[in-house]
Amino acid sequence: MAWLYSIMDWLFLIFADKAQQAQLIAILVSAVIAILVVLLNQCFLSKRAKREIYIKKIEEFYNVIMEYQQYSFNYVFECKNQLQTKSLSNNKVIDSIDKMEMLSNLYFSDIKMQIDELRDKHKSLEILPFEEAMGKVKSSVDNLKNISTELIAKYQH
After folding, report:
1. pLDDT digit string (tens) for 66-80?
2. 53, 85, 146, 155 from 107: Cα distances, Å
3. Domain boundaries, the chain
4. Helix (H, G, I), strand (E, B) or coil at 94
């Protein structure tokens, strides 16, 4: 603390005149304002960048939903027609669910439960009648689209 007093004494010695003291105060106030402006600017820029990242991830999530819909419809059709390619379609559906799960875990933790429900619904698609299976896929996709719409509203500019 002694060094602080010596610095203060030195400043009082240098700025002994009232005009010089006023000049020192003006310089200090300007410096504090400049630092605050830089910090606020950095804060706003980081929030904006984070929001833009979330928007890109929402777009990616929506694209994965569209992939899931396409692959699920193909899978249900192949199950109905007893085609040999249904295991390939099943793998693609599972991959798209995995992508959705990854995105939800990394960026949108509040939709984790929806992905788990989606996995459970997918397991039952093979044994359901065609119309009911297609309805479940459509219902799941509509639900996921609503979630992505809510996310867009939450993170839009």
Report:
1. 999 999 999 999 988
2. 9, 33, 17, 12
3. 5-155
4. helix
Which pLDDT tens digit goes with each residue over 36-56? 999 999 999 999 999 999 999
| Two structure tokens written together for 142 | 């509509």
Pick from 142, 140, 127, 139: nearest CA to 76: 127
Q: Please give the Cα distance from 148 to 113 (Å, whole number).
A: 14
Long-range contacts formed by 60-67: CB under 8 A, 24+ apart: 60/103, 61/100, 61/103, 61/104, 61/107, 61/108, 61/148, 61/151, 62/145, 62/148, 64/96, 64/99, 64/100, 64/103, 65/100, 65/141, 65/144, 65/145, 65/148, 67/92, 67/96, 67/99
Domain range 5-155, its CATH number among 1.20.120, 1.10.1200, 2.40.160, 1.10.8: 1.20.120
Q: Do residues 93 and 68 make contact, with C-beta atoms less than 8 angstroms apart?
A: yes
**By C-alpha distance, which of 67, 74, 89 is closest to 133?**
74
Q: What is the pTM of this model?
A: 0.77
